[in-house]
Amino acid sequence: MRIALDHVFDRIGRRAEGADALIRSESQLTLRFETGRLKETALRQETGLNLRLVTGGRVGFAGTTDLSGSRALDDVVARALASALEGEPCALAWPAATRCDPVRTFDDTVAGLDVATLAALGRRMVDQLARDGWQVSASVDRFVEETTFANTAGQTFVYRSTAIAVSAEVTRVKGDDVLMAYDDVTAMAVPAGTKLDAAVARIVTRMERGERVVEPPEGKLPVLFTPSGSACLFLPLRQALSGKTVLQGISPLGDKVGEPAFDATLDLVDDPLHPGRTASRPADDEGVPSRRLPLIEHGVVRRFVYDLETAARAGTASTGHGRRGTFGKPAIAFSNLAMRLGDADEAALLGAVGQGLVVEDLIGVGQGNVISGAFSHPVALAYRVDGGEITGRVKDAAVAGNAFELLKRIRMVGREGKWIGGSRLVPPIVLDAVSVARR
Amino acid sequence: MLPADLRDRLAEALKGSRADYAEVRVEHTRSTRVAFRGARLEGAGESVDGGGCVRVLSRGHGWGVASFTALDDIPAMLAAAEEMSRAIHLERPVRLAEMPRREDVSVPAVDGDPREVPLGEKRRLLEHLNGLMLAVSPKIADTGASYFDNWTEWAFANSEGSWLYEVRPEIGLSAQATARDGDTIERSLESLGLRRGWRSVQDREGMFRAAAERALALLAAPTVEGGTLPVVLDPRLAGVFVHEAFGHLSEADFVYENPEARAMMTLGRRFGSELVNIGDDGSAAGLRGTLPYDDEGTPTQRTPLVDHGVLVGRLHSRETAAAMGEAPTGNARAIDFRHPPIVRMTNTYIAGGSGTLDDLIRDIPLGVYAVDAVGGQTYLENFSFTAAHGYMIRGGKLAELVKDVTLAGNLFQSLAAIDALAGDFQWNQMGGGCGKGGQFPLPVTEGAPHVRFRELLVGGEVAA
Description:
Chain A has helices at about 1-10, 70-85, 110, 115-130, 195-210, 230-240, 245, 310-315, 345-355, 405; strands spanning about 20-35, 35-55, 60-65, 135-150, 155-175, 175-185, 215, 220-225, 270, 295, 300, 320-325, 330, 335-340, 355-360, 375-385, 390-395, 395-400, 410-415, 420, 425, 430-439. Chain A is an alpha+beta fold. Chain A folds into 2 domains: about 1-205, PmbA/TldD superfamily (PmbA/TldD fold, 2-Layer Sandwich); about 210-440, no CATH class. Chain A has a 6-stranded antiparallel sheet with strand order 3-2-1-4-5-6. Chain A has a 6-stranded mixed sheet with strand order 11-10-9-14-21-20, with no helix packed on it. In chain A, strands 8-15-16-18-22 form a 5-stranded mixed beta barrel. Chain A is globular and about 75 Å long. Chain B folds into 2 domains: about 5-220, PmbA/TldD fold, CATH 3.30.2290; about 225-460, no CATH class. Helix content of chain B is about 20%, strand content about 40%. Chain B is built from 10 helices and 24 strands. Chain B has helices at about 5-15, 75-85, 120-135, 205-220, 235-245, 250-255, 260-265, 320-325, 355-360, 410-415; strands spanning about 20-35, 40-55, 65-70, 105, 140-160, 165-180, 185-195, 225-235, 280, 300-305, 310, 330-335, 340-345, 345-350, 365-380, 380-395, 395-400, 405-410, 420, 425-430, 435, 440, 445-450, 450-460. In chain B, strands 1, 2, 3, 4, 5, 6 and 7 form a 7-stranded mixed sheet that branches. In chain B, helix 3 (about 120-135) runs parallel beside helix 4 (about 205-220). The radius of gyration of chain B is 24 Å and the shape is globular. Chain B starts with 5 loop residues before the first helix and ends in a 5-residue tail after the last strand. Chains A and B meet through strand 2, strand 3, helix 2, helix 4 and strand 5 of A and strand 1, strand 2, strand 3, helix 2 and helix 3 of B. Strand 3 (about 60-65) of chain A pairs parallel with strand 2 (about 40-55) of chain B, so a sheet runs across the interface.
C-alpha cells in the first residue's frame, strides 16, 4: 500500500505544499449465534484511502473506497484540491520522520484463526448459559487491520493489528417482565478460557440478582456504578478533556488545568503504548508517535488531548490523538483510556453503599446535554441495596445528577476493573447523593 | 457510477453459485458534506463510497455473508460466503417466505440535482445559516451547522431471477447551538432529512434561528420537576415514542425464535385504549424511510401494527415471515453494503385523533408538556426518551420553560396510559436515524399528533 500512497503524492505534484494520507485495510469476520445456535457467518473486507492536503495555505481532504485504478486516484486528488479551495487556512505541523516506540498490536494466532475455532469460543459461552427460559445470543468478531501512513515531511509507517471480541447476552421473558444481561471480552489476543468463563459468571450473577423484583428506593442516595453502568459519568469527562471542546470554549474543564477538579482518587491516563489493548498503536493516524499521557492526576486536571489541526488553532502541539476514517477529516479520539483501580472488593463496595442502588446499565446515555455533565436516565439493570447487601432488581426507576459534581466526592473505588470495548479501563465506583426517582 | 454491465456480471456470478439461495447487492454513493463549527468552516468536500454484499443460504446450513469494497471479485466473494454458510449446520433449517421474481428500475425525480450544485454554493448556503445562529447573542458560545447530500445507486440481484436498480437520494441540514453563561451550558438541536433535491433545503433560516434562541432561553430555565405526572408530547416527541416504545418490539426478529416473547406479542392482544392506532409505512409518499423495495427485494407496504388498541401485525423479513407463517412486509433493511439486511422500521406512525393541544392540557392541574426529541432508546419493554425542552403545565395552561426533560416508562403501562390524541398529525422530517445491531444511522421517519398520557415518569433532580 506504500506504493499506492506514493502514486497519490505523485499525482498531487506541485499543486499542494504538503499532504498526508492513510490507507486502512480491514477484514472483519463475525459469527452470530441466535437462540443458542450459530446462525450467520459474515466477512467484511474493506479498504479506504483518506487524503488531506494544503494548497495556498488552505486545508482540503477527500476519501474513497474506490482504489480500482488511476482514474479513481485522479478523482480523489481532484476532490481534495476542490475541498481545499473552500477550506480554512491552517498551519499544520506535519510530523517529520521519527522512529515510533514499538508496541504489540498484532497477534499471529488471532489472524490465523479459522471459523471452527472462532465458533468454539462463542459456543463455550453459549453452552454454559443454557437454561430453561433463557434465550442466549452471542457473537464472535475477529478483526485484522493494516494501516499505512505517509506524509510529505517524510514520516511513514505500516503496522498491522488484530482484535477479538466475544460477547453473549441472555434475555429472559416472564409475562411482561424482560430481564437481560450482557458481557464481553475484547482484546488484541485470543482470550483465555478462564476469561470467557468469568464473563459467563458475571452474566449468571446478573440474571440471578435480577430474578427478584423489589420496590426502588427514592431520594439522594449512594450509588455503586459498575463499569458497564458508569458511561453517564465518563462520557462527559471524555468530551470535556477533548482539546476541541476546550478550543470551542465549552469545556467545563477548559480553565481548570492544574486545579483539583475531582476527588483525589481519580487518576486518568491515555496510553496508546499499553500492550495488547484494542486501541494500542505506534503512532496516531496523523503520524505523531504514541506516548503515555496522564490527563488527570490525583483529581487534578493536567492536560487535554489534541490532533494536528486543533493543536495548530490552539497554539499547542498535537498530543498524538488524531484518528481518521475513510471519509471526512481527522478528528480527536482517545486511545486506551485507563482510570486507576482501587482496592475494594464487591462486599466492601456494597457496604459503602449501605442503603442505595447498584447501577449495571442505564438507558439512553449520550442523549441530552452531555457536555454540561447533567444526566438523567432510567435504569436498564439496577439492584437495590439494603444494609450493604443486594436485595433485588429495581424497575421503573431513574437516576440523575451531574457527573462533574458527583466525581468531586468519590466514596470508594473497586479493584475489579473492566476494559470496556477493549480500550477503556473502568473500575466500579461508589458516589454520594445521586438522585434516584421512581414512579 | 455503477458499471454499465453490472446486471450481466451479477447474473453470471449468481449462475455459478451452488447455494440454494444467493443474492448480491451493489451500491455506489457520492456524497457532499459541509460543516461549520463556531465561525469556522470545519470542512467541505465530496467522498466516494462503494461496494457490495453477497448473502447465501444452503439448505440445512446457516447464512454466509461477505461484504467488500473491491467489485472485481464478486464470484470469489460468493464462493467465500458459500463456504461460510456450509460451515454452519442447523437442525431447524432457515426458510424464506415466497417472493415472486421481479424486475424494476426506479429513479426518482428530485427538485434540483445536488450533484449539479458547486461545492462553493453549498458552503455559502451553510455559512449564511450558521451565521444566523451566531448573530442571536454573544452567549451563543459554539455552533455546529452541517449540510449533506448523498446520491446512492443501488442494485440488487438474486438467484430467483430478480433484478432491481434504484437511485436513493438524500439531503439534509442540521443546526446545533451551544449557549454558555459561566458554568451553565445548554445545547439545542434542529435537523432536517429528506429524500429530495437542492431546492428542498432552501428557506430553512427558521430552524437555525430556533436552535440558537432555544439554547439561549434554556440558560435561564430550571430543571423539570421530576416525578410521575400527566404528560403531553408534541408530535415530534410522540413520533420518537412510538418508534422507540412500540416499533422495536414489533420487529419480528425479536420474537420469532423466543416462545415467551411470542406470547408477549400475540396478535389480538390489547395494547392500549380504543384511541390508539399504530403502523409502519415504507410506501408513504416522499418520506425519508420510503423506498420502493427493501434490501431483500421485497416491495414496501403499509403495515398496521395496532388497530384501536389491539395488536394486529408486525414487521418482517423473508426469514422471520416464513418462521412465523406470516407474510413479508418489506422491512429487511441494511444501512449500506457493509451489512446484511435485518428487520427494521421505515416510516412509523401513531394516527391522529381530534381536537387541539389546548384541548389536551385544559384539565391538567400540574403536568409537563415535553417538546421535541433529542433521542430515545428502548430496553425491550422499558424505554427512555429525552425531550429537547419542555414546559410545566399549571392550572390547564403552559407555564415556565424547563430543561433536562427525560421520560421513562414501560411500554404496556404507557400505551394504556394514553388518554387523548389531538387531530394535528404530522410526519417529522428529521435527520439522524435509527440504530440497531451495529447499523446506524438508518433513515426513518416518524409521524404523530400531540399525545396525552395520564401519567409518565419524568426524570429530574429530586429533593434531598
